[in-house]
């Protein structure tokens, strides 16, 4: 499978597994899992065809590890980034002292005033390294990397979760914990 086909399938899976499963008549369970065969069948009805081997290749080679299979590869889900209500069954964990948030320069004044909100997503996404945060910020414009004092947030009683693909998640980052 070439890179263009992989990207097309990956974008389609992101849409379906994170935001609009109903657009193909797919129902996710409470933890966001979809039956692989049902996903394949309902995707094909929307003219998006992929074999089990191709789906496996998309999951295994996605550089952001956006998707995960269950142990026997009969179910698949998005690792994080949902705008629909699901329970990823994540366990609260102690974060490193500092994490990073990449955003566009145009968002800085609002963030420094109001903090970082999850908006339509289930969580605020934070990166363990500046390189990843820069890539995230570049998707939205000229990137600015914010340093988040997550150790202090955790000590103040706020919860953090680590997704299957290494993205740190929390509900809100108050401006007092943010520095440029």
Offer a few descriptive terms.
2 domains; 19% strand; 180 residues; three-stranded antiparallel beta sheet; 6 helices; 32% helix; single chain; ADP-ribosylation fold; Arc Repressor Mutant, subunit A; alpha+beta; NAD+ poly-ADP-ribosyltransferase activity
Notes on the structure:
Pfam families: PTS_2-RNA. This is Probable RNA 2'-phosphotransferase. The chain has 180 residues and is α+β, with helices and mostly antiparallel strands. It folds into 2 domains: 3-78, Arc Repressor Mutant, subunit A (Orthogonal Bundle); 99-179, Alpha-Beta Barrel (ADP-ribosylation fold). Helix content is 32%, strand content 19%. It is built from 6 helices and 11 strands. The chain has helices spanning 3-19, 36-44, 52-61, 108-114, 130-138, 150-155, and strands at 34-35, 67-69, 75-78, 99-104, 116-117, 124-126, 143-148, 161-162, 168-170, 172-173, 178-179. The strands form 4 sheets. Strands 1-3-2 form a 3-stranded antiparallel beta sheet. It has a 3-stranded antiparallel beta sheet with strand order 4-7-11. A 3-stranded antiparallel beta sheet has the order 6-9-8, with no helix packed on it. The model has no long low-confidence stretch (mean pLDDT 94).
What is the mean pLDDT?
A: 94
Strand content: 15-25%
Low-confidence stretches: none
From the 3D structure, determine the CATH topology of the largest domain. Answer: ADP-ribosylation fold
Query: Taking strands numbered 1, 2, ... along the chain, how are they ordered across the largest sheet?
Result: 1-3-2
Distance from first to last alpha carbon: 42 Å
Helix/strand-derived category reads alpha+beta
For the report, how would you describe the main beta sheet? 3 strands, antiparallel
Oligomeric status of the shown chains? single chain
Could you say what the CATH architecture of the largest domain is?
A: Alpha-Beta Barrel
How many domain units? 2
User: Which outline best applies?
Assistant: elongated
Tell me the helix content. Answer: 25-40%
Secondary structure tally, helices: 6
Secondary-structure element order, as H and E? Answer: HEHHEEEHEEHEHEEEE
**Number of DSSP-assigned strands:** 11
- Backbone CA Rg: 17 Å
What is the CATH top level name of the largest domain?
A: Alpha Beta
């Amino acid at each position: 499978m070439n890179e263009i086909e992989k990207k097309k399938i990956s974008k389609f899976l992101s849409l379906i597994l994170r935001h609009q499963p109903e657009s193909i008549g797919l129902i996710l369970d409470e933890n966001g899992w979809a039956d692989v065969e049902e996903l394949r069948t309902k995707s094909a009805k929307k003219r998006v065809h992929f074999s089990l081997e191709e789906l496996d290749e998309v999951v295994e080679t996605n550089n952001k590890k956006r998707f995960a299979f269950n142990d026997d590869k009969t179910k698949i889900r998005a690792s994080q980034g949902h705008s629909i209500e699901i329970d990823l069954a994540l366990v609260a964990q102690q974060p490193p002292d500092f994490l990073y948030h990449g955003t566009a320069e145009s968002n800085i004044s609002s963030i420094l005033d109001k903090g970082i909100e999850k908006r339509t997503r289930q969580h605020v996404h934070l990166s363990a390294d500046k390189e990843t945060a820069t890539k995230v910020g570049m998707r939205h414009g000229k990137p600015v990397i914010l340093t988040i004092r997550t150790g202090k947030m955790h000590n103040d009683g706020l919860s953090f979760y680590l997704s299957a693909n290494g993205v740190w998640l929390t509900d809100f980052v108050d401006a007092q914990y943010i520095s440029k």
